[in-house]
């Protein structure tokens, strides 16, 4: 008699724009592992519906090997993240809850989330002309393999000429790309009631969001006077 077991995974996805693509690759593999597990326990489920199965077939073969001794099911029931990790977390949670493809998010990180796509302003050729010597010095601080990369040099040049006293990248533009990715995920749904969460179980999602506006916080000083500063807490 095979022992029924369940491997429950709680994911913590770190923040940081530089990690966004890497973390997306990790959650995509976790998503494929869960899909392979569902196929093992549901004969009517198919991996070759509309998505590139690639590593899912490998996970399925491993799970079948394990199933000779144990009836193992893989479930992700907690997803949490911060900053760019929260963006990846939202996508993963949605894909798990409704059995959707993450391919739209792959295109988001590889194509849309680029400095050239997200730059808040388009600097002219003479914008910050006096910083051109700095443009020549900055690449010297980069690793040798990046120093000669024309694309890297061009993006750094654009950032140094970006408008000052405001964010160099457009949050509104990124939000638009995120909404487009979510809409594409909805369009990828094949079965209306399909989910990668086992029936009767729940998926919990948590994301930390920084309060950019902040709120006033009184500080009592040594001479019984009071100073006010803004606290930017995490919601």
Secondary structure layout plus pairing:
Blueprint: E1 3-13, H1 20-41, H2 55-66, E2 70-82, H3 84-98, H4 103-112, H5 115-118, H6 132-137, H7 144-147, H8 150-160, H9 171-187, E3 204-208, E4 215-220, E5 226-231
Parallel strand pairs: 1-2, 2-3
Antiparallel strand pairs: 4-5
Helix pairs in contact: 1-2, 1-3, 1-4, 4-9
Describe the structure.
It is a single chain. The chain contains nine helices and five strands, in the order βααβαααααααβββ. By secondary structure, the protein is of the alpha/beta class. It has two domains: 3-120 and 169-210, no CATH class; 132-166, no CATH class. A three-stranded parallel sheet has the order 1-2-3, covered by helices on one side. The protein has a two-stranded antiparallel ribbon with strand order 4-5. Helix 1 runs antiparallel to helix 4 (103-112) and helix 4 packs antiparallel against helix 9 (171-187).
Major sheet characteristics: 3 strands, parallel
Strand content: 15-25%
Number of domains: 2
Our count of helices gives 9
Euclidean distance between termini CA atoms: 48 Å
Number of strands: 5
Q: Quickly give the structural class.
A: alpha/beta
* Helical coverage, percent range: 40-55%
What does the overall shape look like?
Answer: globular
Which strands sit side by side, in order, in the main sheet? 1-2-3
SSE string: EHHEHHHHHHHEEE
Residue stretches low in confidence (pLDDT < 50, at least 5 long) are none
- Tell me the radius of gyration: 23 Å
Q: Residue-averaged pLDDT, rounded? A: 79
